[in-house]
């Protein structure tokens, strides 16, 4: 039943849904052009005050920000979604395609823009850095933000309510939740604000492309077949080992939650697989 509702919701999406995110990206480009900030140096300098302001205030809650920023790690976020292999495999069909698209966008754009991280541009003693210092020239766009919004947008349209008011509230909730998590990247000192905003928009676009691909091509249709469950069992076990190693190094709440989610999913998938 859940999977049927997801399929029906995805079927309602039209190409016009791309207009809003593309308009937002265009508006950002025009803003940067007007401010003569279409080069890496000016791009970082125009955000300096905003970065320090957000980093200072978000950095007041280092434990919260450090936990939130881990959700942008694909292995962590997807740990909470693995259960949908059983109840709504269409979500995973869209998610796999969307993740590949988002990965392609992230790799190409990071190399193309070559924007330095805050730790490279600013004096590290002047702002909050939580966890390992992010260095290098891969700041734009934020990969964590792309991952977060790719996954959340897949869920956004999978469970979109029919009532208009509920649609608005659901959309508002997902966007606010996504930005709340994504801006933890500024809070831990890893990204500039526009890195996060642009990454979030790209993640949204990646998710829509993934949904359209899954609708048109049945590349991942095997996801919902019981005989292929061993693939996910192996993936869950591998992810569990990875998360255990993370817990050994950092006893973060989000790691424990992800591990519990994996255990529940493993039990459910194994139970269905062995059940006659």
Automatic annotation (TrEMBL):
Keywords: Membrane, Transmembrane, Transmembrane helix. GO terms for molecular function: sphingosine-1-phosphate phosphatase activity. InterPro entries: PAP2/HPO, PAP2/HPO_sf. The keyword Membrane applies. It comes from the Bacteria. SUPFAM superfamilies: Acid phosphatase/Vanadium-dependent haloperoxidase. It holds the Pfam family PAP2. The chain crosses the membrane at residues 12-33, 68-87, 142-159, 168-190, 196-217, 229-248, 254-274. PANTHER family: AT30094P (PTHR14969:SF13), SPHINGOSINE-1-PHOSPHATE PHOSPHOHYDROLASE (PTHR14969). This is PAP2 superfamily protein.
């Amino acid at each position: 039943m859940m999977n049927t509702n997801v399929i029906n919701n995805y079927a309602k999406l039209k190409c016009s849904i791309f207009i809003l995110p593309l308009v937002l990206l265009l508006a950002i480009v025009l803003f940067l052009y007007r401010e003569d900030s279409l080069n890496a140096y000016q791009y970082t300098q125009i955000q300096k005050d905003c970065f320090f302001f957000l980093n200072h205030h978000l950095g007041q809650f280092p434990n919260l920000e450090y936990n939130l920023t881990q959700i942008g790690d694909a292995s962590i976020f997807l740990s909470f979604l693995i259960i949908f292999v059983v109840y709504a495999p269409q979500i995973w069909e869209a998610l796999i395609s969307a993740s590949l698209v988002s990965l392609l966008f992230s790799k190409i754009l990071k190399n193309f823009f070559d924007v330095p991280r805050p730790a490279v541009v600013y004096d590290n003693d002047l702002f909050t850095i939580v966890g390992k210092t992010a260095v290098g020239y891969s700041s734009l766009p934020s990969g964590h933000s792309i991952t977060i919004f790719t996954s959340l947008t897949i869920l956004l349209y999978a469970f979109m309510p029919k009532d208009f008011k509920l649609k608005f509230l659901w959309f508002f909730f997902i966007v606010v939740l996504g930005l709340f998590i994504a801006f933890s990247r500024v809070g831990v000192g890893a990204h500039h604000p526009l890195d996060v905003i642009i990454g979030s928009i790209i993640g949204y676009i990646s998710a829509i492309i993934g949904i359209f691909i899954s609708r048109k091509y049945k590349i991942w249709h095997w996801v919902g077949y019981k005989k292929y469950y061993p693939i996910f069992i192996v993936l869950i076990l591998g992810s569990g080992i990875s998360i255990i190693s993370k817990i050994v190094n950092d006893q973060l709440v989000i790691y424990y939650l992800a591990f519990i989610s994996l255990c529940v999913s493993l039990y459910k998938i194994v139970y269905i697989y062995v059940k006659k």
